[in-house]
Specification:
Keywords: Signal
Bound molecules: NADP nicotinamide-adenine-dinucleotide phosphate, 2-acetamido-2-deoxy-beta-D-glucopyranose
Strand order of the largest sheet: 3-4-5-6-9-10-11-12
InterPro entries: AKR, AKR2E, Aldo/ket_reductase_CS, NAD(P)_OxRdtase_dom_sf, NADP_OxRdtase_dom
Distance between the termini: 64 Å
Protein name: Aldo-keto reductase AKR2E4-like
Domain NADP-dependent oxidoreductase: 39-312
CATH architecture: Alpha-Beta Barrel
Pfam family, one: Aldo_ket_red
Strand content: 5-15%
Shape: globular
Largest sheet: 8 strands, parallel
Length: 338
């Protein structure tokens, strides 16, 4: 190919990126030296408004992951409990076969469920996940909750430091490149690192406009722990918000104003705010246009005044308090009713 053809291809790729509207998330370096793309796709189908689980019944997650990879996502979040690992794996392997990505281009997270906290259960549980994903390694393996459970639903009080040793073993065996935890509070993180001398690379917790967790984020900054933010939209959408959930909703006039200023949507403003807090949001959508929209937040930035307004929506309001575990000795959240 002549030089001008290379230049033509290069410029076309740049323009393609522009057309996507800022849809390539830059990477962040983890405390173990590896990199994580600063926004990912969530693949949990979530809860209905009445609190019951949405069942997986078609290939919508597989399609969503394919749309996401086409839109420029290079980070996918799943968990054994979501029952979507098989679909995530098929989509990734399809895109590898099509030549769109190589395995090393994509960052995949999965999580150890609460019934597998025994140290000797961790590697087998991860091998089962890898089998469903049809992958040889995972980029990030997380302890899903500090709360252990027995198969019959009774509480398992296996020390989290034991479970963590199992994750260290999984990393040493090359099955997980990075390891971390989810839904741990500051004290639990501190105790884990102090007792095992291995600091998690990532903490995944709920972060959104109503639950900004400034002191937990500050702790993680000091420890160089990267925070991924789940349920990044919180109660923005009336179809999902509980009746007692604090504002804002997606039609909030102040948010609509900011969105219009940047030719963006209110959900994009909410995601951009999290990115500017240093949080890695993992918005879930199975709708192609929203998947494309949610990653297009890397071509603008908010002003200090706008960030101050967005900060003012913090109410310490949790959308996922999991109150049926409130009596577990390792329940991580504040024990008050919402
Ligand atoms: N570690 C944990 O314990 C934990 C807990 C919860 C979640 N997570 C992870 O975090 C991910 C995200 O959290 P989440 O699923 O709870 O909530 P979320 O991402 O805040 O919200 C998902 C909902 O927002 C809708 N949506 C997405 N983008 C939209 C847009 N641009 N405009 C309008 N509506 C939009 C989706 O609808 P459609 O899909 O219909 O488009 C879906 O109903 C999960 O999928 C999971 O991977 C982890
Ligand atoms: C976090 O750790 C990584 C890897 O060791 C390092 O490159 C980075 O500079 C650290 N960041 C901070 C803020 O300490
Ligand atoms: C659950 O299983 C454990 C261990 O097998 C047992 O000790 C406990 O009594 C069981 N709990 C219930 C509610 O069945
Ligand atoms: C506004 O955003 C939409 C959707 O990304 C895009 O199609 C349109 O060209 C943008 N308009 C301007 C004026 O930038």
């Amino acid at each position: 190919m002549a030089l001008h053809s290379y230049i033509f291809v290069f410029v076309s790729l740049l323009l393609l990126n522009e057309a996507r509207g800022g849809g390539v998330a830059p990477s962040i370096r983890l405390n173990d030296g590896r990199e994580i793309p600063s926004l990912g796709l969530g693949t949990w189908l979530g809860l209905k408004r009445d609190g019951s689980r949405v069942e997986v019944q078609d290939d919508s997650v597989e399609k969503a992951v394919e749309y996401a990879i086409d839109a420029g996502y290079r980070h996918i979040d799943t968990a054994s409990i979501y029952n979507t690992e098989d679909q995530v794996g098929r989509a990734i392997n399809n895109k590898i076969k099509e030549g769109v990505i190589k395995r090393e281009d994509i960052f995949v997270t999965t999580k150890l469920w609460n019934t597998r906290h025994a140290k000797e259960d961790v590697v087998p549980a991860l091998r089962e996940s890898l089998k469903r994903l049809n992958l040889d390694y995972i980029d990030l393996y997380l302890i899903h909750w500090p709360v252990g459970l027995l198969a019959n639903g009774s509480f398992d009080t296996t020390d989290n430091a034991q479970t963590w040793q199992g994750l260290v073993e999984a990393r040493d065996q090359g099955l997980a490149r990075s390891i971390g935890v989810s839904n741990f509070n500051e004290q639990q993180l501190d105790s884990l690192a102090a007792r095992t001398h291995v600091t998690p690379a990532v903490l995944q917790v709920e972060i959104n406009l109503n639950l900004q967790q400034p002191s937990l984020l500050e702790y993680c900054r000091r420890q160089n722990i990267t925070v991924t933010g789940y349920t990044p939209f919180g109660s923005l959408f009336p179809s999902k918000a509980q009746d007692d959930a604090p504002p804002p909703r997606v039609d909030d006039p102040a948010l609509v104003n900011i969105a219009n200023k940047y030719n963006k949507t209110v959900p994009q403003i909410a995601l951009r705010y999290l990115v500017e807090l240093g949080v890695v949001p993992i918005p879930k959508s199975t709708t192609r246009s929203r998947i494309e929209q949610n990653v297009a937040v890397f071509d603008f930035s908010l002003t200090q005044q706008e960030r101050d307004l967005l900060k003012s929506y913090d109410r310490g309001y949790r959308t996922i308090p999991v109150l049926h575990w409130i009596d577990h000795p390792y329940y991580p959240f504040e024990k008050r009713q919402h």
